[in-house]
Design a protein that fits this description.
Blueprint (H helix, E strand, L loop, with lengths): L1 E2 L18 H6 L5 H15 L5 E5 L2 E5 L3 E7 L4 E4 L3 H6 L8 E3 L2 E4 L7 H20 L1
Parallel strand pairs: 1-2
Antiparallel strand pairs: 2-3, 3-4, 4-5, 5-7, 6-7
Helix pairs in contact: 2-4
Length: 136
């Protein structure tokens, strides 16, 4: 897994300074959200190929593989996963029915990560979308 850095806008960590990397971002997240996001990160890492990269984009951790893949963040009362795809949100709407969702966001409690199986399915779907886009 390669690591890339980017200091864009917006933040879920408590600092006014953009974190330089995912580890720095997570270090600024209070418990139990930090442990929850570490579990989400581990599930994502287990599903992406070695050439995928981690970066900070819009001040949140983001994975990239043939383009933006998905991001995740902690907020004061919840954590979020950002699949960056309306079609993926629609394709998984039945599996996401127990979560608060909006166009491109899945919210979940700070102390209850999404299941690794669901995260992996979302990652695989996003990777397939990005691979299909690159083939056109």
């Amino acid at each position: 897994m390669k690591k890339a850095n980017s200091g864009d806008r917006g933040s879920a960590a408590k600092s006014n300074v953009a974190p330089k990397g995912v580890d720095e971002y997570l270090a600024g997240v209070p418990e139990p959200a930090r442990t929850t996001l570490n579990r989400v990160r581990a599930a994502i890492r287990s599903a992406v190929p070695p050439e995928a990269t981690e970066a900070i984009s819009y001040r949140i951790p983001t994975f990239k593989y043939k383009g933006p893949l998905l991001g995740f963040a902690a907020f004061s009362n919840h954590c979020s996963l950002f699949p960056m795809s309306l079609s993926v949100m629609e394709a998984f709407k039945n599996e996401l029915k127990d979560f608060h969702t909006s166009k491109g966001t899945i919210r979940f409690p700070v102390d209850k990560p999404l299941s690794p199986a669901l995260v992996k399915k979302l990652v695989k779907a996003r990777m397939a979308e990005n691979e299909h886009k690159k083939q056109r």
